[in-house]
Amino acid sequence: MERLSAISLTMALAVASAHAEEKPMDTEHQNLRLVPVAENLEQPWGVAVLPGGLFVISERTGQIQTFYNGERQEVEGLPGIHVEGQGGLLDIAASPDYPDTGWLYFTYSNGDTGSTATALARGRLAGDRLVDVEELFEQNRRSEPGPQAGSRLAWLEDDTLLMSVGDRGSPERAQDTQDHAGSILRLDPQGLAPEDNPLLEEAGYLPEIYSWGHRHVLGLAVDEDRDNIWAVEARSNGHDELLLIQRGENHGWADEDEDSGMLERGASSGFFNEDEVVEPAYRFSEDVSPSGLAVVNGEHYPQWQGNLLVGGLESEQLYRIEVTDGNEVAGVEELLDEPLGPVRDVRQSPDGYLYVLVGDENGMLYRLEPNE
Predict the structure, then answer these.
(1) How far is residue 236 from each of residues 10, 158, 211, 275, 286, measured CA to CA in Å?
(2) pLDDT digits (tens, 9 = 90+) for 17-41
(3) Cis status of the peptide bond prior to 254, with omega within 30 of 0
(4) For 116, which of 19, 109, 133, 181 could close a Cys bridge (C-beta 3.0–4.6 Å)?
(5) Distance (Å) of CA 106 to CA 136, 149, 206, 253, 366
């Protein structure tokens, strides 16, 4: 990767902490503070923290911004992205072999005002430009732009990639295993279905599907120590969920409630029986609209090891979820005394710190540090 330099920067941004205030957090186990890292973001969606302190942030409106030593530049060279509703430029993640290959993977809405599909591409950063861009995967069925496009990315220990795709506003599609909508996919680095995918040779299933029955997974994280995959998603019935993803299994969106006429988890219907689905690990008691999820194992949070950190779009809150060795939820702590703003992403970086991406038109990136 070409090193960022002052000459190549098209814009300069003073160190964010000079403009925005730190936010102290007195939590159950340790005192922390949210330290501003980047500001003035437009509808931020995802963040990749690269070795050497380079932050790469996707904005749903179709831009990638990089921040290095407090300086900012916009990255050119993205493919055509259709921005409408919940669609646009979505998640971004560095490949596990990034120091050697320089690959950045990202998801986005591909199409036009008539129809779009959630797609996966990759490219390499070269100064202020993305080069060697190639589309690797596109969901198999296009639909009206906007609703529940997804998407989140997470790498597994075997260097395969998990990619979530929303149900595109149609709950029935989440139960159609010939449709990528409403599922979590497992792909190899070239965007193909690995040979050991759980449903690869099953009739009636698309080979890329790892799990299905999802509405809109906006938080996805891998716990390599416990060999777990965690996800969070919003449900329209207000019972937002934390899911322990099971390979090759149905996670239960949607079912028809006879009283309300809404499609939701419940009694038997033409879609599935209740005993055929994986129950959530936890249901939130309030409307959270969870977005962003990280497994905590960094040295900076000694009392949080193995916990989950979840953000809330609607609640504008951060949640610490304590998980037992048996994968049971032992407790949930709300961390903020005041709303932070819509939380978009929560990531743990190679430096061991947790980062929180927040906001709409005036978005911020924070680092969560011990307050000593």
Answers:
(1) 42, 34, 20, 21, 12
(2) 445 789 999 999 999 999 999 999 9
(3) yes
(4) 109
(5) 10, 13, 22, 25, 21
